[in-house]
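Posting here for the record, re: copper (II) ion.
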Amino acid sequence: MRRSIKLAPLALALPLALPFMGVGSAWAAEGSTNANLSPVPLNGSTGSGTAMVGVNGTTIDFTLEASGLADGPHAAHIHFGADARHECPTASEDADGDNRLSTSDGQPAYGPIVVSLTKTGDTSDASGLAVDRFAAGTSIQYMRGDVTVDPAVAEAVTQGQAVVVVHGVAYEDERKDAMSDLDPALPASATDPALCGILSAAPAGGADTGAGGAAGQQGTVMLALGGAALIAAAGSAPLIARRVRG
Ligand SMILES: [Cu+2]
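Prediction output follows.
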């Protein structure tokens, strides 16, 4: 698999890319995104994690690592809704005042499940609670490649509108008797959200926004103008676009 890493600043690349981005279906979503996962409020959740999602057309690859979680099952998903706020839920989302944020409570913030980050098999929303294909325990790691997603989902990920949610908490008060809003046969603790983070473009690039040619030219021009002297003088080393195979 070839990855292209550009060091050209977005400020330069973007205006060059804009004319090409209006061509509709001719422009495929592409880019690298990541999210820092933080505890969802109210749910007594601990821990932290990171998620990375790479997009290439309608194919994604993902890596998710989290630790410090409650000892139990941990379903994890990419959530997105066109009408959602593309955010993680706040304590004010607890509309029914039961002192916990259910998965449904968070939906106005992050939208429905669009990709299930399972270890094997199906990755659609239908696998949202496929407990046997998710990990359990205080530390989890999910990693897949070549996962096909809806074009709208691929675009949402590259646009910073998709949210990663890890589910599964531990309640030690009366909330441990609450049942899940997703499956009335499960305890709420098995499905309530524990960690959440918004996927956004990776700072170091890796995102080919369709400006490859333009950015490449930019790099070539800078190199032709040349030289170490210019680069040193302008402090413009980041202007050089570089392709890396690997
Ligand atoms: Cu979820």
